[in-house]
Amino acid sequence: MRLRVVPGAAKPGVVGRHGDAWKLRVREAPDRGRANDAVLDLLAGTLVVPRRDLRLVSGHGARDKVVELAGITTEEINRRLAAAEQEGTR
């Protein structure tokens, strides 16, 4: 899954689509991997999957990231992230 991450945000959550990626906000700054950890925590909670099923494949020091997920289909990922986006806009 492709992500566009905004670190240091006041309000964390799923923002919506950003091209072919999902845009996420996290509170943590991109310092010593804290924002990356926050991204994986946010995804695990939002997608309701164990954190161990998520792996940051690329983009460790960048806003654009690729995360690999095990045990869930792309369609289900998109459905759950879209639902989280809707929850965040209420």
Spell out the key features of this protein.
90 residues, 2 helices, 5 strands, alpha+beta, Conserved Hypothetical Protein Mth637, Chain: A
Write structural notes for this entry:
A five-stranded mixed β-sheet has the order 2-3-1-5-4. The longest helix has 15 residues. It contains two helices and five strands; from the N terminus they run βββαββα. It has one domain: YggU-like (Conserved Hypothetical Protein Mth637, Chain: A, 2-Layer Sandwich). The N and C termini lie far apart (25 Å). The mean pLDDT is 94. Helix content is 32%, strand content 30%. With 90 residues, it is of the alpha+beta class.
Number of beta strands: 5
CATH superfamily: YggU-like
The helix fraction, in percent, is: 25-40%
User: What's the order of the H and E elements?
Assistant: EEEHEEH
Poorly predicted tracts of residues? none
- Total separate domains: 1
Largest sheet: 5 strands, mixed
Rounded mean pLDDT is: 94
CATH architecture: 2-Layer Sandwich
Q: Tell me, what's the shape? A: globular
Order of adjacent strands in the largest pleated sheet: 2-3-1-5-4
CATH uppermost class? Alpha Beta
Binned strand content: 25-35%
Summed up, the helix count is: 2
Rounded Rg: 12 Å
SS class: alpha+beta
CATH topology value: Conserved Hypothetical Protein Mth637, Chain: A
Cα-to-Cα separation, first versus last residue: 25 Å
